[in-house]
Amino acid sequence: MPSPIGHSIVGYLGYRYGFQNKENGNMKAMFFCILCANLPDLDFLPGLIIGQSDRFHGGISHSMGVSFILASIMPLALSTKNAKGLGRIWLLLLGIFISHPILDFLAIDTGYPFGKPLFWPISADYYQSPILLFSDVWRSPSSSDFFISLFSWHNFYAVLREILVMSSLIALLKMALITQRRFKEGLIKDMA
Ligand SMILES: [Zn+2]
What we know:
Blueprint: H1 4-18, H2 27-38, H3 44-50, H4 64-73, H5 83-105, H6 146-149, H7 153-191
Helix pairs in contact: 1-2, 1-5, 2-5, 4-5
The structure holds zinc ion.
Residues 1, 40-41, 62, 100, 104 line the site of zinc ion (ZN).
């Protein structure tokens, strides 16, 4: 799984392109998007309480089905005036929630069952990408040293890798959008 930093970058991008400069563009919306991007990893909590941090982690909370349910519930936490705005927020949140299992799907996973149950409830099978863009995050299986175990050189390099991969993908996307816009502008000029 990528670190909360990797997931937070996607949450921030969702805010940046979905909320900012619109009527809901504010700090509250930004933190809300970042929280939503990390929400599936709250499945660590019940395990931490019983002393086995990984016990309930990486199950159906990391699936398209639960992403769909969460995206349908969470807009209730935002005050939205019209149905058109609600539809846009729903789509944006669905993208943010689905990004979580997809990022985890693209990360190294060394613990059985490998991957995530991406297509639950249609399929309970676990899937892991053959191309792994992100590293895993080392952590203690015990609650007593779970948080302190997160601060390791391995995890530091994992976060650097996430930032590098995400920056490269964003740069590629921006270049593709600029090229597309210039191509369209060229076509319009040629037609004039
Ligand atoms: Zn996760």
